[in-house]
Automatic annotation (TrEMBL):
CDD domains according to UniProt: PBP2_BztA (cd13692)
Pfam families: SBP_bac_3
Family under the similarity heading: Belongs to the bacterial solute-binding protein 3 family.
Annotated protein name in UniProt: Amino acid ABC transporter substrate-binding protein
Keywords recorded for this protein, A-Z: Signal, Transport
Signal sequence, renumbered to the chain: 1-21
Superkingdom of the organism of origin: Bacteria
InterPro entries tied to this protein: Bact_solute-bind_prot3, Solute-binding_3/MltF_N
Alphabetized Gene3D superfamilies for the sequence: Periplasmic binding protein-like II
Record domain Solute-binding protein family 3/N-terminal: where: 38-265
Amino acid sequence: MRLTLTGAALAATLGAAAAWAQPQSPGPTLAAVKQRDVLVCGTSTGAAGFSLPDSRGEYRGLDSDLCRALAAAVLGDTTKIRWVPLTGQARLPALQSGQVDVLIRTTTWTQVRDTANGLNFTAVNFYDGQGFMLRKSLGIGRATELQGASICVTSGSTNELNLADWARLNKVEYRPVVFEQNDEARRSYLAGRCDAYSTDASQLAGLRSSFPNPEEHVILPEIISKEPHAPAVRHGDDQWFDIVRWTFFALLTAEELGITQANIDGFQTSQNPEVRRLLGLTGDHGPLMGLDRRWAWQAVKAVGNYGEIFERNLGMGSAVRLPRGLNDLWTRGGLMYAPPIR
């Protein structure tokens, strides 16, 4: 059966579509960011490969670069960021209270955080899992051999709860040595106050790379949890949620299309419809979120695509030396997948 629209119905449908496609006015968070001309980004107190100040005090890492991409998309300038270092216990209240505009800080997306805590997680920017690190000299090859061991862990994190669940399930008795900040746990582990250190495996790799003698430490093969990291925003501002989520998706899409920080200008004459939509050459995808048409171009030009960000901060060309694994594109066996910009 063939369905047709009458002239009046067709006009009404087209009118509704045109109204829907109108540029959007700034919502509360976007308006506040633009008024102060600064993005307030909640970050960690120090996580190698994700967010860690360098010798000049500049935050470096995957999470830090995502903050820069967001500042570029919204304000056109990666320097217009106020970094707010937050501990595991302080990070969620800081976002809930409006102390920060966005939390991009190795924060695991969980059901309670997504509902009861009044937060929205935008998109997974890193797939991780919790592991264990210890000294090779202990001669331990499996996590279940940590019977009676003291284990460093940070408070206010999923790591603390995961460790307790895993130990209970596997009948492993251990003594938790709990710290508020990762750096405290790192120093204590190095000082020998605990036999092992348990946190996300990527962070263990980053920590080990910073040790005086990294070859003396081993990361065990077991992964005891799912840790999907995702930038978080407050409930109640869908426009800002869309901006944070689609800025990340733009970085993924750029990698899929082969667009890099270095070659992006050469795509200005591309006739590929996907490229033209991404770079703002056609369509109103930026204005639909209250942004400039070139929002995605600005983000990629500032920090590169997702693959570039991963490689320089966590990949085999970095001190951390992590393989892409689950964080590779879906076309290469990973889980990274961006919905279409259209």
